[in-house]
Amino acid sequence: MENPGSKSGNNGAASMNAGSMAASGGPDSGTVQRGVDSAGSALHSTIDKMVDPALDTVDRVTTVAHETVDRLASGASQVAGRVTDQATRVVEASGRAVESSKTWIQEKPLEAVGLALALGFIWGRLTAH
Questions:
Q1: What phi, psi does 54 have (nearest 5°)?
Q2: Tens of pLDDT along the chain (129 residues)?
Q3: What is the count of structural domains for the chain?
């Protein structure tokens, strides 16, 4: 049989060993905290070293993309302006042609009827089977 007093003596020895371990230079909470802080600082530094070049690259790509969009928008505006100018010229030219035709028909109605008959005859001959 075991002696009840011997059990408590063993627990007392274990408590003394733990206390003497901390006192003898074993890891205490301050040392562990400093180690964790040091590791965290090293990780933050490593992350910053990796992220900074990536941010620079993203900034350069963003700048180039914006410049490209600006050039495309400027070119598109110029093309739209040219198309608008050409459309205006076509509309004006067709208006001038209609006015010129009206004036010619009013000044020379018999020639206009003769020309219309001749063109109708030619058109009919070309489209006949």
A1: -65, -40
A2: 444 444 444 444 444 444 444 445 556 888 888 888 888 888 888 888 888 888 888 999 999 999 999 999 999 999 999 999 999 999 999 999 999 999 999 999 999 999 999 999 999 999 987
A3: 1
Instruction: Tell me the three-class secondary structure of the chain, residue by residue.
Output: CCCHHHHHHHHHHHHHHHHHHHHCCCCCHHHHHHHHHHHHHHHHHHHHHHHHHHHHHHHHHHHHHHHHHHHHHHHHHHHHHHHHHHHHHHHHHHHHHHHHHHHHHHHCHHHHHHHHHHHHHHHHHHHCC
Q: Which domain holds residue 111?
A: 89-129
Two structure tokens written together for 70: 């600006």
Residue 29 belongs to a domain: no
Structural domain contains residue 125: yes
Q: Are 112 and 104 in contact (CB under 8 A)?
A: yes
Cα angle vertex 10, ends 8, 16, to 5°?
A: 105
Structure tokens at 23: 């006192």
